[in-house]
Amino acid sequence: MNDASRVGKLPKLSAGSRLGIVALIAIVAAVPVVYTNHYVLTFLVTALITLVLNTSWNFVLGIAGVWNFGMLAIYAIGAYSEGLVMLHTGMPAPIAVLLGGVAAGAFSVLLAFPTLRLFGIYTSLLTFSFAQVVQFVIVNDPKGLTGGSFGFPTVKGLYPNLGPLAQLRAYYWTVLAVVVVATFAVAWIRSSRLGIALRTIRDAPAYAAARGVSPLKYRMLAFAISGFIAGVAGGLYLSYNQSITSSVMGLTPMSIDVTMLVIGGLGTLFGPVIGTGLLTFIQQALIDYPGVQLSILGTILLIIVVFVPGGLVGLISRTRRRLSNWVEEDETALPTTEEAARSTEAGT
Known about the structure:
By secondary structure, the chain is mostly helical. The chain has one domain: ABC transporter involved in vitamin B12 uptake, BtuC (Orthogonal Bundle), CATH 1.10.3470. It is 74% helix and 0% strand. Helix 3 packs across helix 12 (271-285) and helix 4 (71-89) packs across helix 10 (215-241). The radius of gyration is 23 Å and the shape is globular. Mean pLDDT is 87; it is low at 1-5.
């Protein structure tokens, strides 16, 4: 099957790789059954929500190639939109989460209009300024809709009628399902015509222009998709914690999330999974040493940028490729059965 026939399909994987992915999902899904510690489950649910956010950020930052530093603002917009819907309409929480994603996607498209007419550092500055404006509006809301610096008013969440442990398990499995769906959706989009166009615009803008590919059109779609996923992540955060404050949009959370993407492998499918998992574990292990925590994260980022620019996923891919080439060279160097027989006859 040639590359053209695989457009719009999931990446081609071997039977072993598919079985490994299914087994990994099953193992991760079984964690709440094995571990019932509330602290551990709370930590894991929060990490999974961060992974949903990083999946959306990786799509626009790594695949579309737009240095959008306003994703935490979009994330917050999804959370606050869901909260306002739940407080003032009585709409069920699952629908409110989706509406929060739609609102975040709409704001992301509005942000795309001025952003995509700029280049380089100006794109980063505009999106970062957008995040600061959203944070200022939330903190200084004169009508009290957002709760200001005290946090959003308490909402019921997705599973208000369940006990503490059952609620933790339900949130864990819900967010894990969103992670799986978002990852496979990004994988499918990446291999679709939209994904190919986005990567072409990112890597070879002149060639894309020559082929009639509109950067504004395709990148606006990327903003909408990533904004929706980030909004859903924000809605899940609000539902799980039953409140939210503007602190989720700070410079430190943004720096850590981007570090996760770079360390995992920016623009790769499983980079957000590896980067989020590794750095979340390091953060948790050093939670009592915040100064040391940031120093270690900064050191890891420096090492990755200098020595492993493709991230851990790129390092793993290169290692596998070298091992495969080494095995193939050894196999071609070995004599065939006929050659061995001839050499034996010649020797006799």
